Amino acid sequence: MEKKVVITNFTDPLCTWCWGLEPVFRKLETHFPDEIEFRYVMGGLVENIEEKWDPANGIGHADIPRINQQIEAHWKDASRHHGMPVKGNGFSLFSREYPSTYPQNIAYKAAQMVDKKKADRFLRRMREASAAEYLMTSHADVLDKLAQEAGLDVTEFRKHINDGSAEKAFNEDLKITKAFGVTGFPTCLVSYGDKQVLLRGYNDYDTFVKVIEMATDGKIKPIEKVSPNDEAMLEFIKDHGRLALAEVKEASDFPDDQLADSWVKKMKSEHKISIIPVGESYFVEPTTIHEITGKHYCDTNTGQCV
After folding, report:
1. According to the 3-state scheme, what is the secondary structure of the chain?
2. Which of these, 196, 261, 239, 225, lies nearest to 27 by C-alpha position?
3. What is the per-residue burial (b if ≥16 Cβ within 10 Å, else e) of 63-93?
4. 115 contact partners, CB below 8 Å, separation of at least 6
5. Pairing outcome for strands 5-11 and 187-192
């Protein structure tokens, strides 16, 4: 079997530039089909927000309500650059009772213990819920709900959190993060065989392509152009559950947001996708049968009715 390029993302569910890296990953998926494997190492962005000091982004040296406002301003500014949706107003994730992002990191490790593939979907839901919905993703009840939405066995998920096994796994991730000298997120380790390249911070698609070609000695190259294809893109959206406009644009090589938006509006007019507005942008997801007809549809394979 041919080797795959492995991209290990040192990350945190609440890192806004990790959120901003999602369109780059979608483009890598469509331009290197079946040639890249993504892995995630939890880096623990915030152990205690009251001790966090990030002068470059104007975060810290304030009480928690003010820090929440500082983070919201930073996320909004970052969103204008990376294009991923941010809700806009009302960010209040951190409190005296919940001053850390460690619960979300630990929750991802618990999800991995239940189902590795669904764990990545759960990580995505945590990012969405934190950035685009402003849900209190450090709270146990919210994490359980997101785990259920990702298709995880919530009883097993909660067991790994409560018995300490998920926290132990998270501590191992912290050791790996430290061993690679990772001090900021996102950081990505691109590996192919015995070759490894560490990319620090946010990097664009072209940078990943150059590193992949270098690491593989030119054996693995991207598809030069992915022309927008209605059915293929609908299937891609379905595989991911929902995508932001920025992800649709990058995955299908639309030259700008306007053309991507026009495609989305066309597909919406054909009742193939739905639009979920968020802040200054939106998500798209496949339209269900009952949204078109007003009737419920039951999947005979899963027994689930929508």
Report:
1. CCCCEEEEEEECCCCHHHHHCHHHHHHHHHHCCCCEEEEEEECCCCCCHHHCCEHHHCECCCCHHHHHHHHHHHHHHHHHHHCCCCCCCCCCCCCCCCCCCHHHHHHHHHHHHHCHHHHHHHHHHHHHHHHCCCCCCCCHHHHHHHHHHCCCCHHHHHHHHHCCHHHHHHHHHHHHHHHCCCCCCCEEEEEECCEEEEEECCCCHHHHHHHHHHHCCCCCCCCCCCCCCHHHHHHHHHHHCCEEHHHHHHHCCCCCHHHHHHHHHHHHHCCCEEEEEECCEEEEEECCHHHHHCCCCECCCCCCEC
2. 225
3. ebeebbebbbebbbebbeebbbbbbeeebeb
4. 151, 152, 153
5. antiparallel
Contacts of range 253-257, beta carbons closer than 8 Å, 24 or more positions apart = 253/27, 253/225, 253/226, 253/227, 253/228, 254/228, 257/83
User: Longest C-alpha distance within the chain, in Å?
Assistant: 56
pLDDT tens for residues 1-32?
A: 458 999 999 999 999 999 999 999 999 999 99
Residue 191 — very low, low, confident or very high, per pLDDT cuts 50/70/90?
very high
Q: What is the C-alpha to C-alpha distance for residues 35 and 26, in angstroms, rounded to an integer?
A: 13
Q: Kindly report the length of the chain.
A: 306
User: Whose structure tokens read 């213990």?
Assistant: 113
Q: Kindly report the pTM of this predicted structure.
A: 0.91
Contact predicate 76/88, CB 8 Å:
yes
Do residues 9 and 37 touch, judged by C-beta distance below 8 A?
no
Rounded Cα distance, 197 and 191, in Å: 7
Interval 41-96: pLDDT, tens: 999 999 999 998 888 888 988 899 999 999 999 999 999 999 999 998 999 999 99
Strand-pairing partners, residue 188, are 9, 199
What are 9's strand-pairing partners?
A: 40, 188
Structure tokens belonging to residue 102 = 């460690």
